[in-house]
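Q: I'm building a small set of examples for a reading group on sequence design. Run inverse folding on the following structure and report the sequence directly after it, with nothing in between.
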């Protein structure tokens, strides 16, 4: 693969990136070169910096593309989950339109659950009966785990229901897709994703979910992400997804050293909490499957939660790997036409996602409800490094104590500034 490295450097230099071997050779003699420093990388990916870093690293070590893949990691993934955006030509390939009969079943299921007088945490298939829609959802859940990894359910008439009823509908439908709901902010199992910059001081916002900013490609926590659109933006806010398996195949072929980097331990910022940081890989090979779990802000910071200065910095290789993931996500992404009343489900272990910046209006404000789900029957085996976290997500709080907040609030783990410590 040395020839690949030479060609990559040549291509990058053609893009106007002037990095001379002399400059590279002088780097070890720079003052304080032995002291690890955080690379020049921010939350917003910079393609020019990424290409420059790639060119420099390949000049420093042209043998990087000859790096063996980590033991057991496949040279190529073959699966319906290995797709590119251009493979999908019309949205009926991933959108399931509910019938009037389905909507009637949902309405009756809401009334049935309310009549039971049970806590919200007990919304499940047996308490939210969907005689004809339920089997459809069960099959769509299989699509998440063994097929393309995503689908959109269209569409709930959200304006016909109260906020509380929409929460029950969302939980009831989702219980057929994933029977376990993760705690996102103890003991809440539903989170509101909406712009809070006009309500919350900027010094407390440490995650882009609560702004109108463009996000970068990332994963959430858990096996399945569900997003329910109570309202969409006036402009922008397009949801974009991309197959991490497609990104894996390209890196395995051209830059296996970056696969090795992703599979090695990374320092995840605790942002002032205890412990100050945790260490785990971003990429896992377990039970014959490749999965990725990461959020860029854990390594670069975001707004009120900058990267902590007193923890080990990420390496130059890790910085390149972060950018490579993002730009491969962009290269092969699919844009979803997410409409009001839609529920979008994606396999969070095999697909990463992002959203465009957006503009709200005085009366029309983008507002999503989010759940993190797991299907105990179909779910992928959890890598050992994630098992403790998954236990906390799905089993630390009894369903009796689960809550469905009716209003948006900043998740504790993303509060910055003076409030960032627990």
């Amino acid at each position: 693969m040395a020839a690949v490295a030479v060609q990559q450097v040549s291509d990058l230099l053609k893009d106007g990136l002037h990095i001379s071997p002399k400059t590279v050779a002088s780097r070890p003699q720079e003052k304080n070169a032995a002291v690890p420093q955080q690379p020049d990388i921010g939350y917003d990916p910079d393609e020019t910096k990424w290409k420059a870093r790639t060119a420099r690293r390949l000049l420093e070590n042209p043998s990087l593309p000859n790096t063996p893949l980590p033991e057991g990691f496949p040279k190529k993934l073959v699966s319906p989950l290995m797709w590119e955006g251009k493979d999908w030509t019309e949205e009926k390939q991933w959108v399931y339109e509910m019938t009037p009969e389905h909507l009637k079943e949902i309405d009756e299921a809401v009334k049935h659950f309310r009549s039971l007088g049970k806590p919200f945490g007990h919304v499940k298939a047996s308490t939210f009966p969907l005689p004809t829609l339920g089997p459809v959802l069960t099959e769509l859940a299989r699509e998440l785990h063994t097929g393309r990894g995503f689908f959109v359910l269209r569409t709930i008439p959200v304006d016909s229901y109260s906020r509380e009823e929409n929460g029950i509908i969302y939980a009831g439908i989702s219980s057929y897709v994933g029977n376990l709901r993760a705690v996102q902010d103890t003991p809440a199992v539903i989170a509101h994703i909406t712009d809070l910059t006009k309500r919350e001081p900027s010094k407390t916002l440490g995650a882009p979910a609560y702004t109108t900013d463009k996000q970068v490609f990332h994963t959430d926590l858990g096996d399945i992400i569900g997003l329910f659109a109570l309202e969409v933006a006036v402009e922008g806010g397009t949801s974009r997804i991309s197959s991490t398996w497609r990104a894996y195949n390209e890196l395995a072929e051209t830059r296996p050293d970056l696969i090795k980097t992703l599979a090695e331990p990374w320092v995840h910022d605790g942002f002032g909490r205890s412990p100050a940081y945790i260490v785990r890989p971003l990429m896992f090979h377990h039970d014959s499957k490749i999965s990725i779990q990461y959020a860029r802000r854990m390594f670069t910071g975001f707004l009120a939660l900058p990267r902590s200065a007193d923890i080990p910095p990420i390496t130059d290789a890790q910085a390149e790997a972060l950018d490579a993931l993002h730009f491969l996500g962009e290269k092969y992404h699919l844009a979803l036409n997410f409409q009001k009343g839609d529920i979008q489900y994606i396999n969070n272990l095999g697909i990463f996602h992002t959203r465009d910046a957006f503009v709200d209006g005085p009366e029309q404000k983008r507002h999503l409800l989010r759940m993190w789900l797991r299907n105990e029957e179909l779910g992928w085996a959890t890598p050992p490094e994630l098992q403790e976290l998954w236990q906390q997500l799905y089993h630390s709080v009894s369903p009796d104590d689960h809550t469905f907040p009716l209003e948006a609030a900043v998740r504790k783990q993303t509060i910055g500034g003076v409030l960032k410590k627990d």
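The mean pLDDT is 91.
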